[in-house]
Amino acid sequence: MLQDVVRAESFLDHNQSLQLLEANEQLLLSSLVAQADNQSALQALDEAARTVGLDPLTKLANRTLALDRIKQAITHAERQGTWLAVLFVDLDKFKQINDSFGHAVGDQVLRRVAQCLLATVRQSDTVSRHGGDEFLILLDNLAKIEDALVIAEKIEEALLVSGGEENSFEDLSASIGISIFPRDAETASDLIACADQAMYMAKRQGPGGISFFVDDTDPLELSPRQVLDATPKQALQERSKAMAQQLKRQSKELELLREAHQQLLLSLESTWGPQTTVQSQSTRQAELLVNISAELNDPHSAIRMAMVALDRAQDEGPLTPRARAMLLQQTLDLRELINVLLHPIRNQA
Q: What's the domain range around 307?
Protein backbone atom coordinates (compact mmCIF):
# COMPACT_ATOMS: atom_id res chain seq x y z
CA MET A 1 0.00 0.00 0.00
CA LEU A 2 2.88 2.34 0.81
CA GLN A 3 4.50 1.49 -2.47
CA ASP A 4 1.28 2.34 -4.29
CA VAL A 5 1.15 5.78 -2.61
CA VAL A 6 4.78 6.49 -3.60
CA ARG A 7 4.07 5.50 -7.20
CA ALA A 8 0.96 7.72 -7.24
CA GLU A 9 2.88 10.73 -5.89
CA SER A 10 5.63 10.15 -8.48
CA PHE A 11 3.06 9.96 -11.30
CA LEU A 12 1.41 13.19 -10.13
CA ASP A 13 4.72 15.10 -10.08
CA HIS A 14 5.51 13.85 -13.59
CA ASN A 15 2.15 15.05 -14.99
CA GLN A 16 2.58 18.49 -13.43
CA SER A 17 6.05 18.81 -14.98
CA LEU A 18 4.67 17.92 -18.40
CA GLN A 19 1.88 20.47 -18.04
CA LEU A 20 4.34 23.13 -16.96
CA LEU A 21 6.63 22.37 -19.90
CA GLU A 22 3.72 22.48 -22.35
CA ALA A 23 2.56 25.80 -20.90
CA ASN A 24 6.05 27.21 -21.29
CA GLU A 25 6.17 26.09 -24.93
CA GLN A 26 2.79 27.72 -25.65
CA LEU A 27 3.95 30.92 -23.98
CA LEU A 28 7.12 30.94 -26.08
CA LEU A 29 5.16 30.37 -29.31
CA SER A 30 2.71 33.10 -28.42
CA SER A 31 5.57 35.46 -27.71
CA LEU A 32 7.17 34.68 -31.08
CA VAL A 33 3.87 35.19 -32.91
CA ALA A 34 3.30 38.50 -31.13
CA GLN A 35 6.79 39.64 -32.03
CA ALA A 36 6.23 38.75 -35.71
CA ASP A 37 2.90 40.58 -35.73
CA ASN A 38 4.52 43.58 -34.15
CA GLN A 39 7.27 43.61 -36.79
CA SER A 40 4.71 43.34 -39.60
CA ALA A 41 2.71 46.19 -38.10
CA LEU A 42 5.82 48.37 -37.93
CA GLN A 43 6.67 47.61 -41.56
CA ALA A 44 3.11 48.38 -42.66
CA LEU A 45 3.22 51.65 -40.74
CA ASP A 46 6.51 52.61 -42.39
CA GLU A 47 5.12 51.73 -45.82
CA ALA A 48 1.97 53.77 -45.19
CA ALA A 49 4.03 56.73 -44.03
CA ARG A 50 6.23 56.44 -47.12
CA THR A 51 3.37 56.27 -49.57
CA VAL A 52 1.28 59.12 -48.12
CA GLY A 53 0.69 61.67 -50.88
CA LEU A 54 1.63 59.27 -53.69
CA ASP A 55 -0.52 58.16 -56.58
CA PRO A 56 -1.04 54.38 -56.22
CA LEU A 57 -0.72 53.66 -59.95
CA THR A 58 2.28 55.76 -60.99
CA LYS A 59 3.89 56.30 -57.54
CA LEU A 60 4.10 60.01 -58.42
CA ALA A 61 2.98 62.78 -56.08
CA ASN A 62 -0.79 63.16 -55.96
CA ARG A 63 -2.80 66.39 -56.12
CA THR A 64 -2.51 67.18 -52.42
CA LEU A 65 1.24 66.75 -52.29
CA ALA A 66 1.72 68.66 -55.57
CA LEU A 67 -0.33 71.60 -54.30
CA ASP A 68 1.72 71.70 -51.10
CA ARG A 69 4.98 71.61 -53.10
CA ILE A 70 3.83 74.49 -55.31
CA LYS A 71 2.89 76.58 -52.27
CA GLN A 72 6.33 75.98 -50.76
CA ALA A 73 8.01 76.84 -54.07
CA ILE A 74 6.04 80.11 -54.29
CA THR A 75 7.16 81.08 -50.80
CA HIS A 76 10.77 80.35 -51.75
CA ALA A 77 10.49 82.23 -55.07
CA GLU A 78 9.03 85.30 -53.35
CA ARG A 79 11.87 85.29 -50.85
CA GLN A 80 14.59 84.77 -53.49
CA GLY A 81 12.98 86.80 -56.28
CA THR A 82 13.16 83.89 -58.77
CA TRP A 83 10.86 82.37 -61.41
CA LEU A 84 8.97 79.10 -61.29
CA ALA A 85 6.77 77.35 -63.82
CA VAL A 86 3.88 74.91 -63.69
CA LEU A 87 3.45 72.59 -66.69
CA PHE A 88 0.02 71.01 -67.26
CA VAL A 89 0.56 67.84 -69.34
CA ASP A 90 -2.43 66.11 -70.94
CA LEU A 91 -1.87 63.01 -73.08
CA ASP A 92 -3.28 63.18 -76.61
CA LYS A 93 -5.68 60.44 -77.77
CA PHE A 94 -5.35 58.49 -74.52
CA LYS A 95 -9.03 57.51 -74.64
CA GLN A 96 -8.41 55.73 -77.94
CA ILE A 97 -5.64 53.67 -76.29
CA ASN A 98 -8.00 52.61 -73.50
CA ASP A 99 -10.81 51.79 -75.94
CA SER A 100 -8.57 49.88 -78.36
CA PHE A 101 -6.25 47.99 -75.99
CA GLY A 102 -8.04 48.00 -72.64
CA HIS A 103 -7.47 49.71 -69.32
CA ALA A 104 -4.61 47.41 -68.36
CA VAL A 105 -2.59 48.65 -71.32
CA GLY A 106 -3.71 52.19 -70.54
CA ASP A 107 -2.36 51.86 -67.00
CA GLN A 108 0.91 50.56 -68.42
CA VAL A 109 1.14 53.63 -70.67
CA LEU A 110 0.50 55.95 -67.71
CA ARG A 111 3.29 54.30 -65.73
CA ARG A 112 5.64 54.61 -68.69
CA VAL A 113 4.75 58.28 -69.15
CA ALA A 114 5.36 58.88 -65.44
CA GLN A 115 8.87 57.43 -65.69
CA CYS A 116 9.46 59.40 -68.89
CA LEU A 117 8.54 62.67 -67.17
CA LEU A 118 10.73 61.90 -64.16
CA ALA A 119 13.68 61.19 -66.45
CA THR A 120 13.23 64.47 -68.33
CA VAL A 121 13.11 66.96 -65.46
CA ARG A 122 15.60 67.75 -62.70
CA GLN A 123 15.65 65.87 -59.39
CA SER A 124 14.60 69.07 -57.60
CA ASP A 125 11.45 69.35 -59.75
CA THR A 126 8.13 67.73 -58.81
CA VAL A 127 6.14 65.48 -61.16
CA SER A 128 2.61 64.63 -60.04
CA ARG A 129 -0.43 62.89 -61.44
CA HIS A 130 -3.29 65.36 -61.50
CA GLY A 131 -5.88 62.75 -62.43
CA GLY A 132 -6.69 60.44 -65.35
CA ASP A 133 -4.14 61.12 -68.09
CA GLU A 134 -3.19 64.57 -66.73
CA PHE A 135 0.11 65.37 -65.05
CA LEU A 136 1.54 68.45 -63.35
CA ILE A 137 5.21 69.40 -63.32
CA LEU A 138 6.66 72.02 -60.99
CA LEU A 139 9.86 73.63 -62.28
CA ASP A 140 11.46 75.52 -59.41
CA ASN A 141 14.33 78.06 -59.43
CA LEU A 142 14.21 78.88 -63.16
CA ALA A 143 17.09 81.03 -64.41
CA LYS A 144 14.89 82.34 -67.23
CA ILE A 145 11.36 81.75 -68.50
CA GLU A 146 12.62 80.18 -71.72
CA ASP A 147 13.91 77.18 -69.70
CA ALA A 148 10.29 76.08 -69.16
CA LEU A 149 9.78 75.90 -72.93
CA VAL A 150 13.00 73.92 -73.34
CA ILE A 151 11.78 71.34 -70.79
CA ALA A 152 8.38 71.11 -72.51
CA GLU A 153 10.04 70.45 -75.87
CA LYS A 154 12.24 67.75 -74.29
CA ILE A 155 9.12 66.10 -72.84
CA GLU A 156 7.52 65.94 -76.29
CA GLU A 157 10.67 64.34 -77.73
CA ALA A 158 10.91 61.85 -74.85
CA LEU A 159 7.25 60.83 -75.22
CA LEU A 160 7.74 60.23 -78.94
CA VAL A 161 10.75 58.00 -78.26
CA SER A 162 8.93 56.17 -75.45
CA GLY A 163 5.88 55.55 -77.63
CA GLY A 164 8.10 54.24 -80.41
CA GLU A 165 9.32 51.39 -78.20
CA GLU A 166 6.04 49.69 -79.13
CA ASN A 167 4.66 50.06 -82.64
CA SER A 168 1.17 50.71 -81.29
CA PHE A 169 2.14 54.03 -79.64
CA GLU A 170 4.51 55.63 -82.14
CA ASP A 171 2.46 58.85 -82.09
CA LEU A 172 2.36 59.18 -78.28
CA SER A 173 2.29 62.90 -77.48
CA ALA A 174 0.88 65.40 -75.02
CA SER A 175 -0.55 68.91 -75.02
CA ILE A 176 1.41 71.06 -72.58
CA GLY A 177 0.30 74.35 -71.02
CA ILE A 178 2.76 76.54 -69.12
CA SER A 179 2.12 79.20 -66.47
CA ILE A 180 4.81 81.34 -64.86
CA PHE A 181 5.07 82.76 -61.35
CA PRO A 182 4.80 85.67 -60.71
CA ARG A 183 4.00 86.80 -64.26
CA ASP A 184 0.70 84.93 -64.67
CA ALA A 185 -0.52 84.28 -61.12
CA GLU A 186 0.57 84.54 -57.51
CA THR A 187 -1.14 81.56 -55.85
CA ALA A 188 -0.78 77.81 -56.36
CA SER A 189 -4.40 77.26 -57.41
CA ASP A 190 -4.31 80.18 -59.85
CA LEU A 191 -1.05 78.94 -61.38
CA ILE A 192 -2.60 75.51 -61.97
CA ALA A 193 -5.72 77.13 -63.47
CA CYS A 194 -3.59 79.25 -65.83
CA ALA A 195 -1.55 76.21 -66.87
CA ASP A 196 -4.80 74.29 -67.46
CA GLN A 197 -6.13 77.08 -69.68
CA ALA A 198 -2.83 77.21 -71.56
CA MET A 199 -3.07 73.44 -72.10
CA TYR A 200 -6.42 73.90 -73.86
CA MET A 201 -4.77 76.60 -75.98
CA ALA A 202 -2.09 74.03 -76.88
CA LYS A 203 -4.74 71.43 -77.83
CA ARG A 204 -6.13 73.87 -80.42
CA GLN A 205 -2.73 73.72 -82.13
CA GLY A 206 -3.02 69.95 -82.61
CA PRO A 207 -1.33 66.93 -80.95
CA GLY A 208 1.97 67.78 -79.31
CA GLY A 209 1.12 71.46 -78.93
CA ILE A 210 2.84 73.71 -76.39
CA SER A 211 1.44 77.02 -75.20
CA PHE A 212 2.25 79.62 -72.57
CA PHE A 213 -0.64 81.22 -70.73
CA VAL A 214 -1.49 84.42 -72.62
CA ASP A 215 -4.34 86.56 -71.33
CA ASP A 216 -6.76 88.10 -73.87
CA THR A 217 -4.83 86.77 -76.89
CA ASP A 218 -5.77 84.23 -79.53
CA PRO A 219 -3.36 81.32 -78.89
CA LEU A 220 -3.29 80.49 -82.60
CA GLU A 221 -1.75 83.90 -83.33
CA LEU A 222 1.31 83.41 -81.12
CA SER A 223 3.79 80.54 -80.97
CA PRO A 224 5.52 79.80 -77.64
CA ARG A 225 8.66 81.53 -78.92
CA GLN A 226 6.65 84.60 -79.94
CA VAL A 227 5.09 84.71 -76.49
CA LEU A 228 8.56 84.76 -74.96
CA ASP A 229 9.62 87.55 -77.32
CA ALA A 230 6.44 89.58 -76.77
CA THR A 231 6.71 92.70 -74.64
CA PRO A 232 5.38 92.11 -71.11
CA LYS A 233 2.18 93.85 -70.12
CA GLN A 234 3.96 96.14 -67.67
CA ALA A 235 6.40 97.26 -70.37
CA LEU A 236 3.47 97.98 -72.71
CA GLN A 237 1.83 100.11 -70.07
CA GLU A 238 5.05 102.03 -69.49
CA ARG A 239 5.49 102.56 -73.23
CA SER A 240 1.90 103.75 -73.53
CA LYS A 241 2.47 106.19 -70.68
CA ALA A 242 5.66 107.50 -72.30
CA MET A 243 3.84 107.87 -75.61
CA ALA A 244 1.06 109.83 -73.93
CA GLN A 245 3.63 112.19 -72.42
CA GLN A 246 5.31 112.58 -75.80
CA LEU A 247 1.97 113.37 -77.43
CA LYS A 248 1.32 115.96 -74.75
CA ARG A 249 4.62 117.65 -75.53
CA GLN A 250 3.87 117.53 -79.26
CA SER A 251 0.48 119.06 -78.57
CA LYS A 252 2.14 121.97 -76.82
CA GLU A 253 4.55 122.37 -79.73
CA LEU A 254 1.63 122.41 -82.18
CA GLU A 255 -0.08 125.04 -80.08
CA LEU A 256 3.05 127.18 -80.19
CA LEU A 257 3.19 126.68 -83.96
CA ARG A 258 -0.41 127.82 -84.29
CA GLU A 259 0.33 130.95 -82.27
CA ALA A 260 3.37 131.59 -84.46
CA HIS A 261 1.17 131.32 -87.55
CA GLN A 262 -1.32 133.76 -86.07
CA GLN A 263 1.50 136.17 -85.27
CA LEU A 264 2.74 135.75 -88.81
CA LEU A 265 -0.70 136.59 -90.19
CA LEU A 266 -0.89 139.69 -88.01
CA SER A 267 2.60 140.61 -89.12
CA LEU A 268 1.59 140.31 -92.74
CA GLU A 269 -1.38 142.64 -92.28
CA SER A 270 0.55 145.26 -90.26
CA THR A 271 3.75 145.35 -92.34
CA TRP A 272 2.22 145.57 -95.79
CA GLY A 273 4.40 148.15 -97.54
CA PRO A 274 5.87 148.86 -100.95
CA GLN A 275 5.43 146.38 -103.73
CA THR A 276 9.03 145.15 -103.59
CA THR A 277 8.76 144.56 -99.88
CA VAL A 278 5.47 142.78 -100.35
CA GLN A 279 6.93 140.54 -103.03
CA SER A 280 9.98 139.73 -100.89
CA GLN A 281 7.86 138.97 -97.87
CA SER A 282 5.43 136.96 -99.97
CA THR A 283 8.24 134.85 -101.34
CA ARG A 284 9.61 134.13 -97.86
CA GLN A 285 6.13 133.45 -96.52
CA ALA A 286 5.33 131.16 -99.40
CA GLU A 287 8.51 129.17 -98.81
CA LEU A 288 7.78 128.93 -95.10
CA LEU A 289 4.21 127.82 -95.59
CA VAL A 290 5.11 125.39 -98.34
CA ASN A 291 7.69 123.82 -96.00
CA ILE A 292 5.10 123.62 -93.24
CA SER A 293 2.57 122.08 -95.62
CA ALA A 294 5.13 119.55 -96.82
CA GLU A 295 5.95 118.69 -93.23
CA LEU A 296 2.32 118.09 -92.39
CA ASN A 297 1.81 115.92 -95.47
CA ASP A 298 5.08 113.99 -95.02
CA PRO A 299 4.23 110.43 -93.84
CA HIS A 300 7.47 110.39 -91.85
CA SER A 301 6.78 113.62 -89.98
CA ALA A 302 6.51 113.58 -86.19
CA ILE A 303 2.76 114.25 -86.29
CA ARG A 304 1.99 111.53 -88.83
CA MET A 305 4.23 109.02 -87.06
CA ALA A 306 2.50 109.78 -83.78
CA MET A 307 -0.87 109.17 -85.45
CA VAL A 308 0.33 105.81 -86.84
CA ALA A 309 1.76 104.85 -83.46
CA LEU A 310 -1.56 105.62 -81.83
CA ASP A 311 -3.39 103.46 -84.37
CA ARG A 312 -1.06 100.55 -83.52
CA ALA A 313 -1.08 101.01 -79.74
CA GLN A 314 -1.74 97.63 -78.09
CA ASP A 315 -2.78 98.99 -74.71
CA GLU A 316 -4.74 102.22 -75.26
CA GLY A 317 -5.47 104.10 -72.09
CA PRO A 318 -8.16 106.76 -71.60
CA LEU A 319 -5.74 109.51 -72.72
CA THR A 320 -4.94 107.96 -76.10
CA PRO A 321 -8.28 108.57 -77.94
CA ARG A 322 -8.41 112.17 -76.70
CA ALA A 323 -4.81 112.76 -77.74
CA ARG A 324 -5.47 111.35 -81.21
CA ALA A 325 -8.58 113.47 -81.66
CA MET A 326 -6.73 116.55 -80.47
CA LEU A 327 -3.84 115.96 -82.90
CA LEU A 328 -6.23 115.33 -85.76
CA GLN A 329 -8.20 118.51 -85.06
CA GLN A 330 -5.05 120.58 -84.75
CA THR A 331 -3.70 119.16 -88.01
CA LEU A 332 -6.93 120.05 -89.82
CA ASP A 333 -6.87 123.57 -88.34
CA LEU A 334 -3.27 124.07 -89.43
CA ARG A 335 -3.99 122.90 -92.96
CA GLU A 336 -6.96 125.23 -93.16
CA LEU A 337 -4.83 128.12 -91.89
CA ILE A 338 -2.10 127.37 -94.43
CA ASN A 339 -4.63 127.25 -97.26
CA VAL A 340 -5.99 130.64 -96.18
CA LEU A 341 -2.49 132.10 -96.00
CA LEU A 342 -1.45 130.63 -99.34
CA HIS A 343 -4.60 131.76 -101.13
CA PRO A 344 -3.71 135.46 -101.60
CA ILE A 345 -0.07 134.62 -102.34
CA ARG A 346 -1.10 132.18 -105.07
CA ASN A 347 -3.45 134.80 -106.51
CA GLN A 348 -0.56 137.28 -106.67
CA ALA A 349 1.63 134.69 -108.35
A: 235-348
